[in-house]
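Aim 2, interim progress. The first record below pairs a target sequence with its structure tokens.
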Amino acid sequence: MAAKTNRLLALDGLRLLCALAVVLYHLGLAWSVDGVRPTTTYLPQPVASVLIYGFLGVEIFFMISGFVICMSGWDRSPREFLASRAARLYPAFWACVLITTAVMTVLPLTEGIPLPHGLTGADIAINLTMLAKPLNVPYVDTVYWTLWYELRFYALFAILILIGLTRRRVVVTGAGWLVASVVVPAGAPLAELVMPQFAPYFIAGITIYLIRRHGPRLPLWALLAACWAVSLFRVRERVLSANPGFPVPVWPAWLVITLAFVVLAAIALGVTDRWSWRWLAVGGAISYPLYLLHPRIGYTLIRYARDHTGLPVPALIVAAVLVLLVAAWLVHHLVERPAGPALRRWIATGSISPPRTARVTDLSAGPALVPSASLKAGAAATARPGPAGEPSAGATGRRSQ
């Protein structure tokens, strides 16, 4: 069964929906507007009871990453894969780190602190590498913790590419990783590699892509069902660790995760292949910079606007989201679009200049938090049938004063 090559606009739309869910969760629940009372006191309780589940956008982001990283890594050399990932992640990340630092320097949430969290210039530079966590440096913005998970997943998948990607090898690796995620304790040294809390989502995404590429096969459905079962247990842990000041039932989280599995499986099976709403591609493109920009800058905009205007907090949250959407679009158009291809060419070929006769053929999907959701242009020509074979709910947004 040849791989489908339709642009996955539905995946772009899902990416934007997840980003907005995380944004509204953070701005609506995960901090204190006045430094005293939680933001939830300014929102109607029914609204807060819905927004609390926005942290699940991270889980679904990781599922999308599993799908698109497997997709973009197929038929690529390790160097091409590295070039593609670096080009997708770093230009927007560098811009957003510097923008967040500038905003927090000019409008600090805590008086007397010249940089975010009181970080030094060296700390900011380390943040730009995405290695702040292993180097034990505080993040410029707390949401960067997810990128450390992404980088470790990339490293694991790069090893598979180096060995040689086949369906059999990917399935066996995924099954072994899932078993390890169940038996390895969260605090064990090996957990840094296994990532037990989020492994089932990455593996599920990989499996769903294999269903799209090779067709629905019983071993793939069995592995996907096992991922779903483990994910329900993991998401229960995340919900129980939430402490927003009101009851948080587990069953809506189970429903959201189950719907994510169903939606991604439907996308893989081609249900949405005929979608032609091009605005979804724009939404997918800005989801990554929106995610990177929203917490600290959003908190700052809301608090300063409240202090100077006295407008209702719900209105300020909506206004902040609109401002952040515009900022994300600008980062995508002014930074990602020109810098991404140049960085990819430099890593892949040693030159930033495109070949004179080259056409843009890199239509591979980016990871969950980055733009583009197309299938690789050459996949149809090379695909062949058959075998070849840390954080809690609150950690996605620690309270900021």
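The second target in this work package is listed in the same format:
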Amino acid sequence: MPYYSSLRYKIKDPKERARVIGNLRDLQKQLDADIPDKDTDKNLLLASWNIRDFGAPGTRRGFGYRSPETLYYIAEILSRFDFIAVQEVNELDELEEVIDILGRDWDYIATDVTDPSLGGNGERLTFVFDKRKLWFKNISGEIVLPSNMLISKALVETEEGKKLYSGKQFRRTPFLTRFQSGWFKFDICTVHLYYGAESGPALDERVDEIDRIAKYFGKRAKKALKDNRALILLGDFNIVHPDHKTMKALLDNGFTVPKKLGDPTNFSGNKYYDQIAFIADDKVIEYIDSDVDDPKHRNAGIVDIYKKLYRPKDWETYKQQMLASPNGKENEGDLKRYFKSWLTYQLSDHKPLWVRISTNSSAEYLDGLREKALEAAEH
């Protein structure tokens, strides 16, 4: 990345800077081994990552501010992909610092903050992308449900005796855009859906949100496939398990989740919150699900962001940072335990997940033209 030189300005202490550079080198080696190399014209590396309270104003629930070193780690992880849907963005300051580290070839598109009165924690939804690999097709918007699809709806009698639907929009409004990479055209919608609770009406509302966005977005499938466009629905769905009704609400509306993304995506390793789902030509899913042992040639995966960063044995390194956070003083007697929560506000409590999609359809296109030319010649 062109802005590694800024390390000496952002991290002034030489000893600390040397430590951070060592961590970056270890992270680079891990990502080199775990993720395929980016290429120019054959494949698109597409990812989704919920970065916890990214750019949150104040001191992110008492856990303090992100350190400069963490922003370099985030930038290094993002740089391994061509296109990333980032959830849980609040203010844009940290995101813009990361974009600056990535360099001039990178850009982002973000929604406005969802009204906090809807219960969405003042979050934005964001797409970060490498301009060398994709181009924005000038279509974007936040999804607003029609009255007959509202969340947790109820029927209400009007003075005229007609029944109207009354209910809620999404807590955090899903964000839809259109992009193209090589020959691959796609409409992509990112979400951070309602969590609520693990049972009862709040869980029902979560299932409703998953069902409504999958149903609403999936209605575009027939036209999209006719126009050779894929539909990609991704983000933090707060899905409990592949066999849970939260996942059923997604799959029952025509979306397919690649088999390679079947592992947990949260920090604790017991939930399947994040997903990348498709309605696309069968060849797209077949390519992603191709059975390859070599990680460098796999087409989907989940990144263990804590394999080389903020490991349990590193907790003493961050004592002063933890003590400087508001919660740190309350946990001074057991900073080792506090470290397990604090580190999720530095990196995240979610892991990035990714897919590699073939974008070079030139051979198929030429074959199609040839067949049409032969048919015309026969007549």
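The chain has a mean pLDDT of 91. This observation will shape the mutagenesis plan for the next reporting period.
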